[in-house]
């Protein structure tokens, strides 16, 4: 079976419509102020309503407060949360939604450090392995050394620099539970490219 697909960082209805036509499983909305794909909560709510039940909506945050998380979840009603900072695991669980934790492979120098990080966030529904460092954010189109995930037994989401041209190779090497992409399907940050979205989906579904 091919991995599930998550496209992240939508800012426009037209791009969402193209992704829905491709039957992408998860669509990500980013509520991080510094992100070039960042939305305010009112815009995120509009886009969430536009998606409806046609895909699962992932709300991505980074070091948001407990108050913000409660308010945003209540207003936007995502299906799940994705945490990209160094949030306290208790805070991640507090909202009561399933949650994914981005694992900053750029900040974790060896297998022992990775394992320590996974132990800390053991309550996550999925770990999402990404290339960023502890203090930097994701969504930069940079890959990490995939061989670091050889032998990972738990189902996980692979992210960081995936592209239509590289995703099949990554899947053949690792067989992740899902693949996640932002930059690799864009014309510019937050502006998706319909041709690259289709090429990515085709590449994944041919594996
Ligand atoms: O995309 C952002 O601007 C961003 C900002 C802050 C935290 C996370 C962010 N993006 C995460 C993602 O879009 C993906 O989950 C992942 O990092 C893959 O991104 P890419 O390497 O661009 O494919």
Give the gist of this structure.
By secondary structure, the chain is of the alpha/beta class. The chain contains 7 helices and 10 strands.
- The run of helices and strands is EHEHEHEHEHEEHEEEH
The unique ligands bound to this protein are:
the ligand O=C(O)c1ccccc1NCC(=O)[C@H](O)[C@H](O)COP(=O)(O)O
Strand content: 15-25%
Reported by name, the CATH topology is TIM Barrel
Number of strands: 10
- Coarse structural class: alpha/beta
Rg from alpha-carbon coordinates: 16 Å
Number of helices: 7
Describe this structure in words.
- The model has no long low-confidence stretch (mean pLDDT 95).
- This protein has 7 helices and 10 strands.
- Helix 5 (111-120) links the parallel strand 5 and strand 6.
- With 207 residues, it is α/β, with parallel strands linked by helices.
- The protein has one domain (4-205): TIM Barrel.
- It starts with a strand and ends with a helix.
- Strands 1-2-3-4-5-6-7-8 form an 8-stranded parallel barrel. Strands 9-10 form a two-stranded antiparallel ribbon.
- The ligand O=C(O)c1ccccc1NCC(=O)[C@H](O)[C@H](O)COP(=O)(O)O binds next to strand 8.
- Residues 6-202 form the N-(5'phosphoribosyl) anthranilate isomerase (PRAI) domain.
- It comes from Ahniella affigens.
- InterPro entries: Aldolase_TIM, PRAI_dom, RibuloseP-bd_barrel, TrpF_fam.
- One of its GO terms (biological process) is L-tryptophan biosynthetic process.
- Pfam families: PRAI.
């Amino acid at each position: 079976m091919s991995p599930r697909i998550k496209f992240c960082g939508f800012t426009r209805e037209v791009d969402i419509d193209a992704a829905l036509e491709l039957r992408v499983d998860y669509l990500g909305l980013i509520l991080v102020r510094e992100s070039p794909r960042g939305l305010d909560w009112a815009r995120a709510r509009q886009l969430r309503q536009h998606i409806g039940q046609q895909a699962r909506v992932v709300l991505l945050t980074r070091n948001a407060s407990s108050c913000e998380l409660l308010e945003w979840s209540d207003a936007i009603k995502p299906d799940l949360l994705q945490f990209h900072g160094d949030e306290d695991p208790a805070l991640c669980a507090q909202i009561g939604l399933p949650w994914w934790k981005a694992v900053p492979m750029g900040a974790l120098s060896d297998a022992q450090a990775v394992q320590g990080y996974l132990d800390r966030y053991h309550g996550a529904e999925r770990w999402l392995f990404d290339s960023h460092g502890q203090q930097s954010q994701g969504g930069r189109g940079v890959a990490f050394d995939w061989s670091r995930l050889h032998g990972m037994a738990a189902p996980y989401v692979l992210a960081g620099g995936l592209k239509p041209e590289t995703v099949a190779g990554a899947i053949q090497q690792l067989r992740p539970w899902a693949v996640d992409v932002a930059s690799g399907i864009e014309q510019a940050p937050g502006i998706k490219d319909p041709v690259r979205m289709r090429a990515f989906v085709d590449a994944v579904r041919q594996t």
